[in-house]
Amino acid sequence: MQIGVALPTGVPGADGSRLIEFARRADRLGFHSLTVTDRVVYDSYDSIVALAAAAGATERIELVTAILLAATRPSNVELAKQLASLDRLSGGRLVVGVSSGMREDDYAATGTDYHSRGRRLDEALVELQEIWAGKGPVPGVGPRPVNGTIPIWGGGHSAAGLRRAARHGIGWISPGGPPHKFSELVANFRTLWDEEGRTGAPRMGANCYVALGPNGAEEAKKHMLSYYAFMGQMAEHLAKGAVTEPEQLRAVVDLYEANGCDEIFLLSVTDDPDHLDRIADVVLK
User: Fold this and answer.
1) Are 72 and 110 in contact (CB under 8 A)?
2) In terms of CB atoms within 10 Å, which of 21, 53, 162, 268 comes out highest?
3) For the structural domain made of 2-283, what CATH number should be given?
4) Where are the domains of the chain?
5) pLDDT of the chain along its 285 residues, tens only?
6) Cα(35)–Cα(53) distance, rounded to whole angstroms?
7) Residues near 50 by Cβ (< 8 Å), separated by ≥ 6?
């Protein structure tokens, strides 16, 4: 199983220079991927801009949007151009994870319709591929991705989101949950994959919040109660699910691997680059 780490762009007040060092260190330590989450109405960095900065500070690490709220972007042409530009700037290291999201205010803020977001995301995934192939509504929009296209990874727990991932993606990213139940998610998704007539095996990913260190539990609770405040009491439950001890992290990673996870994304609740060293000591050595 490969191990990625999230660039903490969603930590309120995160310092830009620390995020750049976070990306450099993730690359140097040997993590397989660097991911970003996506929010509009929150004190967070824009996902594409943040990954563009990370691309210039790194050499080999895969860059993943996990996930991008593509349907909040008013123009598919502009989004296709931004993503292809990022892909070329990074030398073809980009993977685009997408989901429709569940926060209505993110759509209101961008002037896009919340209730049609799923249908529009389906349409966007088709149009992005057409634009990258040199077609689309206005042929000639460039640049072209390094490998001709950019891999798409699906996210979200809804039936429509799972079906979308099976139809358009290389696989599915779980938002999180108990690792011992991941094998059931894998089996269910492979059924959808087969129904869509896909060949080969889907790539299965999972997110997991991590907060190691003496104040890990407190930092996890503070961050997650803020980030998931819109979910009410569920935010408390999510905060309790963060991994805060090294032994626990090793056990969680091993259990995800045993249950069919191909890549786990570890989400830091702090922008402190030293947190990466603590994580790496557990999962990479």
Assistant:
1) yes
2) 268
3) 3.20.20.30
4) 2-283
5) 999 999 999 999 999 999 999 999 999 999 999 999 999 999 999 999 999 999 999 999 999 999 999 999 999 999 999 999 999 999 999 999 999 999 999 999 999 999 999 999 999 999 999 999 998 788 899 999 999 999 999 998 899 999 999 999 999 999 988 999 999 999 999 999 999 999 999 999 999 999 999 999 999 999 999 999 998 888 888 888 999 999 999 999 999 999 999 999 999 999 999 999 999 999 998
6) 13
7) 7, 9, 19, 36
